[in-house]
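Weekly sync notes, structure subgroup
Attendees: PM, AL, DS (notes)

Item 1: joint prediction request from the bench team. They want all two components modeled as one assembly rather than separately. Inputs as received:
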Amino acid sequence: MADKRKRRRPDPDSDSDSDTRPFKHLLKPDTTILSSLTTLAASTAASSSKTLTLSDLRLSAACREVSDLPPSAVQSAIESLAVSLARSILSGQGFSFTVPSRSSANQLYVPELDRIVLKDKTSIRPYSSVSTVRKTTITTRILHLIHQLCLKNIHVTKRDLFYTDVKLFQDQTQSDAVLDDVSCILGCTRSSLNVVAAEKGVVVGRLIFSDNGDMIDCTKMGMGGKAIPPNIDRVGDMKSDALFILLVEKDAAYMRLAEDRFYNRFPCIIVTAKGQPDVATRLFLRKMKMELKLPVLALVDSDPYGLKILSVYGCGSKNMSYDSANLTTPDIKWLGIRPSDLDKYKIPEQCRLPMTEQDIKTGKDLLEEDFVKKNPGWVEELNLMVKSKQKAEIQALSSFGFQYLSEVYLPLKLQQRDWL
Amino acid sequence: MADKRKRRRPDPDSDSDSDTRPFKHLLKPDTTILSSLTTLAASTAASSSKTLTLSDLRLSAACREVSDLPPSAVQSAIESLAVSLARSILSGQGFSFTVPSRSSANQLYVPELDRIVLKDKTSIRPYSSVSTVRKTTITTRILHLIHQLCLKNIHVTKRDLFYTDVKLFQDQTQSDAVLDDVSCILGCTRSSLNVVAAEKGVVVGRLIFSDNGDMIDCTKMGMGGKAIPPNIDRVGDMKSDALFILLVEKDAAYMRLAEDRFYNRFPCIIVTAKGQPDVATRLFLRKMKMELKLPVLALVDSDPYGLKILSVYGCGSKNMSYDSANLTTPDIKWLGIRPSDLDKYKIPEQCRLPMTEQDIKTGKDLLEEDFVKKNPGWVEELNLMVKSKQKAEIQALSSFGFQYLSEVYLPLKLQQRDWL
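Output from the run, pasted for the record:
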C-alpha cells in the first residue's frame, strides 16, 4: 500500500485491504488484542471456581432444581419409586405420585444465581380419582419407558416416546408434559432420561471433544463445522486453547467467521444454534463454559429477539425452569450488535430497520425482566433501542464490505473490551 | 433365549432382543442382505456411467441449463459481459441485458433426464426504459458484487448480498430474483457465484471427504454427525466403501440410525436435511451420487410431503429449474415408509393419522406430476394413500420398540429389495 497512486477511491463495498473502511485505522496489532483477551480469560477462570448453588444460598429446602444423573442412577430411582408405590398400595395408602408444580406461580428468579428455579409447591396425583387417573397412568407408562431406555442406554426423541403408545397418550403434548413431570419427580435433567431434542447447532474452532467415543477436532471441520450432538451425556474430554467462546445468533455470521477461520487469528470457539437456542446447543455451551472456564461473548442482532436469545442461553426459558441450573450459561457478555453500535459504527440509515409495534412491546417487556434489570448497561442499551425505534441485523455490517465483521468490527470490539 | 421360561409375554414396547417383534423372524443373516446390496451397488455404478445430458437429446439449442464454473471463469464471464456492454453503448446500440425467462411457461419436464429445465425464451432488459431501469441497475450491481466475491474467493449468503446496498435493492426478494437472473445470464450455478445458502443438513457413515482442506471421516463423527458445508465447491476427495446412500427425511430417524451406527452393520452413508431439502444438502447428495456412483434409498414419512421431498431431491424445485442438472440426484429409490407398508407391517391403527383435506389435495396434485407418472409403482402407492386417507410418520415404527427401525424394518426392506 506504499504506492499511493494505486489507491482506489473510497468504496465501502470493495472489501479490499485498504484503510478506507470505517474504524479500520483504530485497530492495533493482534498481539495487543490477544494480551487483553488473555487477561479476560484468566479472570473468568478465576471467578468461575466460586459458582454459587441453591444450597450456598440456603435455599435448597425452599427451591428445587434437577441434576444430571447417569442412566444407572435414573434406573435405580425409578425402581425405588416403584417399590415405595407398591408399599403404599399394600399398606392401604393407595397409589399416587407427588409431582412438583411447574406453573409460573411456583417459579422464582434468584438474582444471586441469575436463574429461574422452581419453588417447593407439589401436587398429589392419585390413581383413585377420576380427574387424575389418566395422568397417573401416563406417568406410570413414561416411567416404564424411561426405565427401558436407561437399561439399554439408547436415546430417543419426544416424538418416538409418544409413538410407543399413541392410544394412551392421545396427543404428544400429553406425553411431553408428563416427561417434564418425571424429570422433576426423579430430580434429574431431561437429558438424563435419555430423551433428547433434535439438534441444530454447530461448533467450529479451537475445541477438541469426544462425541460418542470419537475424538473431534473442531479446527479441522472445514466451513460446515461439527454438528452439536443431541445427547450431551456422550460428550466429554473437552480440551481447548481458546481465550473465549463466541456465541453467534445467526448462521450467516457463523459462516463468515468459519470461512475466514477467525478462530486462528483470535483463538476462540465459535458456536451457533442458527436462531432460537435449542436444548442441545444450550447444554453444549454450558458444558464448554463449565469445563473450560472461558468467557462467553455473544454476537446477536440488535433487536429485542437478539437480547431474548441471549437471555435464554443466560438464564433459561420459563417452561424448563426446573432444569435451569443445567441448561443455562452464567455471565454471558453482550458483545454486539448493540443499539449504541448503530451510531457508533455509522451503520447506514438504509440498513437499519424500523421496529414494529410488536418489537417495541417486546422491548418494553424485556425492560421489566429481572435478568435485564440487574445489568444497568443492558437497560441503557435497551432503552436506547426502544427510544430510537430502530433495529439492525448482524448482516447490516456487510454494507462496509463482506468481511467487515471478521476483519474490523469484531477485532475492534475485542481490542476495546467493548462488551456488557 | 434357550430357556423358554425366561420368555416374557409379547410386549411390542419391550425393545428386547427376543423374537416377538413383528417380522423379526423373516430376517436372514446380514451376509445374505449384504450380498444383495453389493449387487445393487454394482448395477448402479454400471448404469451411472451413461448419464444423459441435454446435448445427448439434441435439446441443447432449445433448452437451457447452467453448469458449475470455477471463480476465475465466472470472473472472466463477467468481464467479457462488461466489455460487450461497453461496446454496445459505444456503437450506439445502448445498454441492455438479455435475460433468460425463468417463468413456468418457459419450463419443461424432460422425461429422459427426469428433470425440469428451462426453454429458450429470453427477455431484453434495457437501461433506457423507465420500466426496467431499476432492474437493469440492480443486475449491474449484483454482477459487480459477484465479481468481487470471485476475485477474493469468499462466500456470502443472499442476506449479506442484500445488505451491501439496501438503498438500491429495497427488498431482499429483489436482489434474490436478480441473483437467479445472473446465474442464467452467466450460465453458471448459484453456488458458482459464491453465494451460498444456510446449511442445515448432516451426514454420517462410511464417507471420507475434504471440507475446505480438512479431511473429514464421517465414521468418526459420533452421533451428531458432520454438518454439511454450505459451499460445495470446497468439498472434494470423496471416498467411500458404502454400498448405498440412505437419504432420511427426519432428524429423529437419522439420530436413531446414527446412535445405532447402522452404517457399520450395513455399509452406507446416512444423510438428512432435517425436513425440507436445502440447496447445500441437495448439492452434497448429488455430488456423492455422481462421484461414488452409489444407489440412493430414501426413507420418508408416508404422506404427500414425504413424496414431495423425494421429488425435490430427485427432479428439482420449480423456482430453481434452470439449475436442475446440478441440484438433482437421479434415480432415487423410494424405500419407505410407503402407504402399502402401513398394512404390510401392521402399523397400529392409533399410530396412523387421518389425512387432512389439504393432504388429499396435495396427494391428488402429485398424481398429475410427470415425475410421479413415469414411475408406475409410485402411482400405485400414491393412489393407495389417497384412497385410504391415512398417513404415518417414520416414528410410527417406534410402536414396535425404539430400535425397530434400525433392527428390523430397514434390514428387512434391504433384504427383500423392497424399493420402488
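Discussion: Chain A touches chain B through 64 residues (CB under 8 Å).
Action: AL to compare against the crosslinking data before next sync.
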